[in-house]
Amino acid sequence: MKALRQFLKCAVASGLFFVGIVVFCTSSVAFAADAVRLDDLFDQLSQADPYEAGRIEQDIVVEMSRSGSDAMDLLLERGRAATQAGDFSSAIGHLTALVDHAPEFPEAYNARATAYFMAGLYGPALKDIGTVLTREPRHFGALSGLAVILEETGDEAVALEVLYKIREIHPQMEGLSARIAALELALGGTAL
């Protein structure tokens, strides 16, 4: 029995050591997207026809969703799933854990901004969008979310400027032209 107790102590100690290594190694996960590939995809996106744009957009989304860690990717997946299910509290919890463990990963902040927005928490959503855009100014999803929040809070003129910025990055973005036309009209312009 004494030998078993000693074995269990060693196993627990080894397990805690291993957990410590895993936590240490994942606490500073770097954003794993290929910067050269992203640059190429964004260049293609700005010149793409509508059919190509959809494919390129998906390639960009996939590339920007690479955290560099399977565990962090799982937190992102769980956070997104909870957001889609309307469980914003769980989503924010998963995504906050992701942000804590992968603070250089822009998509962590973008996903959490979406959950905050869906929960009606515009202040935290705007803060996370700011972090995303500081790290990846071409993030058309974050820009689109920013424009929605600006519209909903009555700042249509700035929202329109954000939409113009998206048009430079992703001119074929679905629904973008209609959003621009509606805001131009609302701000006293003429719809073409």
Automatic annotation (TrEMBL):
Signal peptide feature range? 1-32
| Gene3D superfamilies on file | Tetratricopeptide repeat domain (1.25.40.10)
In terms of Pfam families, this protein maps to: TPR_16
The superkingdom listed in its UniProt entry is Bacteria
Q: Which key words tag this protein in UniProt?
A: Signal
UniProt-recorded name of the protein: TPR repeat-containing protein
State the taxonomy lineage. Answer: Bacteria, Pseudomonadati, Pseudomonadota, Alphaproteobacteria, Rhodobacterales
